[in-house]
Amino acid sequence: MTHDIAGFSKLSKEDKLNWLSEHYFTTPTEATALLKKYWNSDQALQKLHDEFIENTVSNFYLPLGVAPNFVINGKNYTIPMAIEESSVVAAAAKAAKFWASRGGFTAQVINSEKIGQVHFIFKGDSEKLNNFIVSIQPNLREATKEITKNMEARGGGITHIELRNQTDKLPHYFQLHVTFETKDSMGANFINSCLEQFAKTITTEAQHYPSFTDAEKDIQIVMSILSNYVPNCLVRAEVSCPVEELAEKKLEHPIEFAEKFVQAVQIAQVEPFRAVTHNKGIMNGIDAVVLATGNDFRAVEAGVHAYAARDGQYRSLTHATIEDGIFKFWIEIPLALGTVGGLTNLHPLVKWSMELLQKPSAHELMQLVAVAGLAQNFAALRSLTTTGIQEGHMKMHLNNILQQLQATEPERQAVQKHFKKETVTHAAVVSFVQQLRT
């Protein structure tokens, strides 16, 4: 049975809830009550959330945690992380504390170039098209002057415009490839506005270009859009120390550990099946901070994974070496982030996160996010090459299992005591709770 409805977006939130509950749920009253339970009692705050997206019916909460003890470029940070997966925040905090006593993390922005493209079809002489684009470059910049003036005042703007001939990939396909500097803004709206104006200028100017035939004047714009692949918007984060300094209470053989660690990274460099999981762990840290700071984690994910496959094979984003007795571990990734505009100026918890991070610039935030990814990967590889990933992860996951079983407080205490020395698995916990209950 279908449940079509006209004008759903025009209904009040209350009417949206009632319609959904009546048509899709066996207990409509309970379904509506659940959504209302997550409405914010502060009406102004709820209205703000309602206006972030369309057809809002409730709020979907994620835990917001913090990972303290990060030392980055000699400065102390506590990093906010919004994520639903247990053990991620704990792992980041553990890695931060480990490296804080070994010199901390270093990070630097290598470049911050953003990219946008006007994609179009031209059925004519490519040499004439190239001369045309060169000749109208001043017009292209002039036409976007009102859009770019504020960005230019902050030191940003359009940095380069070039024609790219892509006819070897698709018949008659060309693109205007444009690079931008957007300073502390992620710059999506700015870039797209510039590109759409470029498209209008190209079609208008083509009508008056004397070298074009009538057919060549008919340039067909397909689309104008920024790219989330930003291979020249790069940040690098790194840790290093003498191999013997890797030793600690549970790591008594640092040379053996370092060699095994490097081998694990090398495996992720050559084996895509491992590389995907390896990089997913990195993104646990990166996405959590990107989300907590109101940035677009889907754009970051897409760009980062494209970068991981830039040579034709999907590879590890991190690298590790042992040279002259020094262990070095680093990451180099593209990150297009902003600290002004979008949710950064609207969402109260994003504002809180930015203040917690001491109000970073976009470049500083890029460094912090890269460090979070590196720390997460270090923690994962440290576990994988020593005790195994499940020991720590399942102990963190124990609370979720107890929630599912609706364990009482005495049962929780008994379970926690029992599994201090026993391996935690879902089946083992269920079995133990059943024994307690019988």
Question: Can you put this structure into words, describing what you see?
Answer:
There is one protein chain. The protein is an alpha+beta fold. Helix content is 48%, strand content 18%. It contains 15 helices and ten strands. The strands form three sheets. Strands 3-8-10-9 form a four-stranded antiparallel sheet. Strands 5-6-4-7 form a four-stranded antiparallel sheet. A two-stranded antiparallel sheet has the order 1-2. Strand 9 and strand 10 form a beta hairpin. Helix 5 (126-143) crosses helix 7. The longest helix is centred in the C-terminal third of the chain and has 23 residues, at 362-384. It is globular and about 90 Å long. The mean pLDDT is 94.
Q: Tell me the fraction of residues in β-strands, as a range.
A: 15-25%
> Cα-atom Rg, whole angstroms?
27 Å
Biggest sheet features: 4 strands, antiparallel
Flag low-confidence runs: none
Order of helices and strands: HHHEEHEEHHEEHEEHHHEEHHHHH
Side by side, the strands of the main sheet go 3-8-10-9
The assembly state of the depicted protein chains is single chain
Compose a concise summary of this entry:
With 438 residues, the protein is an alpha+beta fold. The protein is built from 15 helices and ten strands.
SSE diagram, text form:
Blueprint (H helix, E strand, L loop, with lengths): L12 H12 L3 H10 L5 H8 L13 E9 L2 E8 L5 H13 L5 E4 L4 E8 L4 H18 L1 H9 L3 E9 L7 E9 L6 H19 L13 E8 L6 E9 L11 H17 L1 H21 L4 H12 L9 E6 L2 E9 L13 H9 L5 H23 L4 H16 L4 H10 L7 H12 L1
Helix pairs in contact: 1-2, 4-12, 5-7, 8-9, 9-10, 9-12
